[in-house]
Amino acid sequence: MKTYKAVPRKAMLTSALLAVLAGPAWAQDTSRDGAASSSQGLDPATLDTVQVTGIRGSLTSSMNLKRDSQGVVDGIVAEDIGKFPDTNLAESLQRISGVSIDRTSSGEGSKVTVRGIGPDFNLVLLNGRQMPASNLGNGGGGLSGSRSFDFANIASESISAVEVFKTTRADNPTGGIGATINVKTLRPLEAAPVVSVGVKAVNDTSNDNLPRTLKGSDFTGELSGIFSDTYADGRFGVMLSGSYQERDSGFNQATVAEGWATFEGDNTTDWRVLPQPGQGYADRIQNRPGPNDVYGRPQNTAYNVNGVQRQRTNGQATLQWKPVDNVTTTLDYTYVENKVQQQRSELSVWFNYGPGDSIWTNGPVAAPIIYSEDMVNSDVSMGGAQLATKNTLDSLGFNVEWEVNDALTLNFDAHNSTGESQPDSPYGSAGVLGVAAFVRGKTTVDYSGDLPIINIALPPGGVQAADALVTGSVFQNSYNKSEVEQYQGRGTFRFADYSALDFGVGYTDVKNRSASAIMQRNTWGGLGTPADYDDSIWYADDMAKYFDAFSGHSDPRLTGQFLVFDFDRLINRAAQVGTASDPACPTCYVAPTEYSQDIRTNEKSKSAFLQYRTTFDWSMPLNVAVGVRYEQTDVDSTAMVRVPNGISWSSANELNIDYASESGFISDSGKYDYVLPNLDLKLDISDSLALRGSYSRSLGRAGWDQIQSGQSLADIVRTQGGSGSRGNPALEPLLSDNFDLSLEWYYGESSYASVGFFRKNIKNFISNTIVRENTGDLHTPVGGAYWNAALAAGCGVSDMPCIRDYIFTNFNGQPGVTATGTNSAGQLTGTIVGQPGDPIAGFDITLPANQRSDHLDGWEIAVQHLFGQSGFGLAANYTKVKSGLTFDNLSLGDQYPMVGLSDSANLVAFYDKNSWQIRAAYNWRDKFLNGIGGQGPNPNYTDDYGQLDLNISYAVNDQLSLSVEAINLTDETMRTYARHTNMLRYATQTGPRYMFGVRYKF
User: Fold this and answer.
1) 3-class secondary-structure state, position 469
2) What digits encode the pLDDT tens for the residues 238-253?
């Protein structure tokens, strides 16, 4: 006989706590909450009013959420109204088993990875509604195809809870293979009246570790407030919340930003390879990589220092009205604005893959220990950049819930939300100004430590302001707008045996627009002469002192002298400098106003679901939920792309693509539909022991850049060719069959231990692959008639200044050759344009493709223990993940790895008693692949990283509390590398951040 299990009083209390603290789980649809579904027919009026606050209360509520939910669900509940465990939502989420975070360069939590699945395949909801995700490309430039949501935009003060649904249910919106993350805000009819105001002072120590012109304020402020109350005998509720935060910070990086040219040891065909034994300068190479080894040579190495300022504004208004007892309506509006400005100064050296001394590690992946190249009057690059972006989110939603009768509940929800990322400066989203002094001799880098040690042979006195001049410049105007219009109708019918049927339909219309434009002046050989620039524009500084968290910063070999400059003043001067053949160009130093790339994609999805829930009241009760969801999606994409018509060689290291004045438009479309089943089982072995099993099928949609129409090429072309990308609107989404099995032991009021196994069988896995193509009729001067004549005259194949000087000297005025003068290094300047008969340039085109199927599996272990009434407790978890979708460092071909796959662990120790709350939290994430790129299909690994945070608060009385918070207390650094740890990509230093807060409740 099938019956519905009676709800124990503990479960009733759990449900009440969750309702008080967090409100409904899905846009006012309380019938769908896991706790609510286990307590059908419960009269809340019979329960005592309970208010749980503090660390212990938050952990207890999170535990009960896990215990009472359908499927595998973890979450975090606010410690009190206006007080989330961490100021940053992403940093709170990383405390959950299986959740890891990506950090911004300045060290702040930004995006989340769940169970090894990266941010693009985790769906983020706000009160059950799909949120738009707008992003700009790397460094504020280019096009972004990311679907990932940036949690750094949202303040935590108005958040009541965050739920992480690790298993998929039929009534969940689709799009999250790793997890569906639901951020819940306060609802006035479900919370006690409150008026609360908080103030914080923030000291980010990274701001102190910058040149004086990049520093912000030592202390910045945060202000937040919440008002919530009910009227008309509890039938009308109002909630208003707002926060404003300013933060001045910095980060400093050592980089090999252009990546590593990678070869097999026996390669003799690529001109960039090391000479074979007995050839060329082979006698200057120690421990040369063997014929079966893989090795890489750097394109450049640099140090940079960055000042960052942020102003974040959040506001929310919620109105609720119950015209009658069984109808609740909700109207809410959320606004988010996050402005970020960044200023950068750098010291960089560029290599030409030429002769030099080097020492190499042993294979099979060999990397340089010491690497040098011979240089004569080459450039010491000291460029600068200014980035300024504004991210906004507007979300307006309406919900009505109707309890038709004891058996039937209906719910309708609609919202229109827009996320927008755009430039916030006359220089566009990213403005880069090249500066150089052509005084560089032999250049050597030691890559053996965490910090690469750059050593430059310089003339007496080093780099002087009298030697500096502007070179090239790039100003980018990037834009991304995402709009979500969503309608959801759902209901629950409860049968006489207390089983329930959930049903619903939905329609989601997502519009995404990504656009960009670039203004580039290709005077990389120098604009004018050093005499054109006043020496007072620059001042000298030393890079070494800004990397004191790395052990090598005091190495006497390190050449750290560089010039910092007034960005605005130097731009104004550069706009006035010109010659007869290259006149002054004031418009070259502002962002373009018309987009040269514009991609607009529209996804329309229709869905319907059914889910049946019941309990078999056996000796060990079995809770069952079985459901199915149907999803159909239509994709339409239109792209405006630039039409390339030539290649110009304008400086020794770079060639540039020339474009036609008019752009072209291309359109394409795609369509797919899937049936997505789910089954959730929970066996109550005893009152304290539960065994769960789940199966579900989920899908993850391709990135916007992957389903775009049209093709784009990178503006800069190297001697070996260029790069570009194109998409495919007909791509299928990732399809994952998910299996979960877990055992949970709730052995105390707020204590539990759990162990779980999960497996994901992923089909249609989408990964970028690189195809070498000859694009149109783009002729390159490399290997052409002029080039070959220079080689025949004695220039080396890698001696670009020699080749250019020979061509300008002997062929100036002939087709494609225009000499304009001489730079400060005595090298001829001008342009050499590819001609018919010259080789057609090859391009590495990045393509998305539905690749092979594979699997991902892992274990999650979690423990939470409170030591009686002592106030002490701890929470710990560990996640182990494994997949066949890994990168093979010995293969130079196309690969299809899983980005973001890593183990992780957390340990939280706390004390919560009387007026004191103290929490120390350590988070660790193992090495993981964060992407592919940098001179071809090379891996980029982020090294393992651990961070200790501390939070102390003291309640002076029931109204007033004081707090101190420390982030990255031990001043950890971050490091990213390629196939070998010596193949650095980025080494980043930030610093501890301290916050001092006061909160008052009226």
Assistant:
1) strand
2) 999 999 999 999 999 9
